[in-house]
Design brief:
The protein has 88 residues and is mainly alpha-helical. The chain contains three helices and three strands; from the N terminus they run H-H-E-E-H-E. Bound molecules: zinc ion.
Length: 88
Amino acid sequence: MLWVITVVVVLALSIMLYRAAKRKPKYDSKVVKLSDVRARAGKAASQPCSFCKKKAAKLTFYASEQGQVVGVCGDCRSQAEKRSMLPL
Ligand SMILES: [Zn+2]
């Protein structure tokens, strides 16, 4: 009778291990999708300009005299360069 219990326990354990192994791909889905990252990067790119506050698709970043990082749009880049800000 003991061998029957042993077989059942071994079977139960192997099924549990099999299910645990099958579940693994779900953990892989936690990996950030590249498309999501790109979508977020796209949002970050449409930040408002530090000077004119207009949302720009592309900002150029400069370090101000106060050591702050400012993002400026194409129109305000000349202003930032006049202020001798350091491009980052
Ligand atoms: Zn601007």
